[in-house]
Amino acid sequence: MKFEEIYQNYWQKVFRLAMGYVNDRDLAEDLTQDVFVIVYQKLSTFNQQSSIGTWIFRIASNTCLRSVEKKQKHQTTALNHDLPTTESHFEDNDQIKFLYQCISTLDEIDRLIISLELEEVPQSEIAEIVGISNGNVRTKIHRIKEKLNKKMSRYEYSRS
């Protein structure tokens, strides 16, 4: 597969994954760019033991985790959980913004799992990316969805 095809097929997915981690459009775009620099540099070493998507998501999750860890080390004020205004490649929808805000408050592993689930990555691939069993992935997804549903229902209630 050519890099251009990979980029076109995965850019938005990686961007949304990054948004789930950092809840900041500019930083998510920077992280997405970093991911594709790594993908471009290492594409010739991809050994096809997993799918290209699994490989890219593993790179993306590691890049995002390093960024979050780095930010936490240098963090001197509370995180701002407000989503900035988005452009055409990211939906300008209050409910979607709130969902990403909720996702950004989850633990890192939960953020990764639900972000991959939202990108319709098969649960077996999520298990491989995260390094846990398929059964554990299913359980975690169920629990994460329950948490998000509670937060979303509070959002819907507050809007009515």
Keywords:
single chain, 160 residues, mainly alpha
Assembly form of the protein = single chain
Succession of helices and strands = HHHHHHH
Radius of gyration over all CA atoms, rounded: 16 Å
Mean pLDDT: 82
| Number of domain units | 1
Count the beta strands.
0
Q: Sheet with the most strands?
A: none
Low-confidence stretches: 76-89
Describe the structure.
The protein is mostly helical and 160 residues long. The chain has one domain. Helices cover 73% and strands 0% of the residues. The chain has 7 helices and no strands. It starts with a helix and ends with a helix. The relative contact order is 0.13. Mean pLDDT is 82; it is low at 76-89.
Question: What is the secondary structure topology, with strand pairs?
Answer:
Elements: H1 3-22, H2 25-42, H3 52-74, H4 94-104, H5 108-118, H6 123-130, H7 134-159
Short overview:
The chain is mainly α. The protein has one domain (3-159). The protein has helices at 3-22, 25-42, 52-74, 94-104, 108-118, 123-130, 134-159.
